[in-house]
Specification:
The chain contains 7 helices and 5 strands. By secondary structure, the chain is of the alpha+beta class. Helix 1 crosses helix 2.
Length: 210
């Protein structure tokens, strides 16, 4: 009973931590903006109305995106990133946050085509992985098999992992989208998508090929 409570408690921590951290971050941003705007609102009461801090944050984000879209902005951001990459501890944190953000907030998640199960690290174990593309013609010819480039992420940081070339016949397709697969990896398996709760068809070959 105690072990069950510990597992459920850990699952709750894994699920709530990203939510709490995200909420805390936005709250700190809005609070900081409100503190900056307070003197202006006292001097110019016309701008003293609810929600002005929220609008300022949205405008700042929008202007940052516009700035990053032009040549000067790209150069400034590139220079700033090079400085960050030279700071050992900050570099690791920045890289992890950036990679995860790009996966969830941009079309980069299309780099991962589908979620699969593969036998890893040995024949009696399975790992959740992501197909990135079909194997190259040269590797197919060298091995005599149709290979897939498969990325096996680490938990809870999916920005690191292993690239494996796996025969297509040895891959088991999983009926969830990439975002759900990433959530499962980040949560250490605490998050399980709804389709995985359903029973599988009798003919498991339906899951091995699309």
């Amino acid at each position: 009973m105690l072990k069950y409570i510990q597992r459920r408690f850990l699952a709750g921590v894994l699920i709530l931590t990203p939510i709490i951290v995200t909420g805390w971050l936005f709250w700190k941003i809005f609070s900081s903006i409100d503190k900056v705007l307070t003197p202006l609102q006292e001097r110019y009461p016309i701008i003293d109305w609810p929600g002005v801090g929220f609008i300022v944050v949205l405008l700042f984000i929008l202007l940052t995106g516009i700035f990053a879209g032009n040549l000067i902005g790209r150069r400034v951001i590139g220079t700033a990133e090079r400085i960050v990459y030279n700071l050992p501890l900050i570099r690791r944190v920045y890289t992890a946050v950036k990679e995860i953000s790009e996966v969830f907030l941009t079309d980069r998640k299309t780099v991962f085509r589908e979620v699969v199960l593969i036998r890893y690290p040995h024949r009696d174990a399975f790992a959740l992985a992501f197909v990135t593309r079909e194997g190259t013609r040269l590797f197919n010819q060298l091995t005599g098999k149709t290979l897939l480039n498969v990325f096996v992420p680490t938990t809870p940081n999916p920005t690191s992992g292993f690239l494996l070339l796996v025969p297509d016949d040895d891959v088991i397709r999983v009926p969830i989208d990439v975002e759900e697969g990433l959530k499962m990896v980040i949560s250490g398996g605490a998050f399980v998508a709804d389709p995985l709760q359903k029973s599988v068809p009798k003919d498991l070959r339906d899951y091995r090929r699309t």
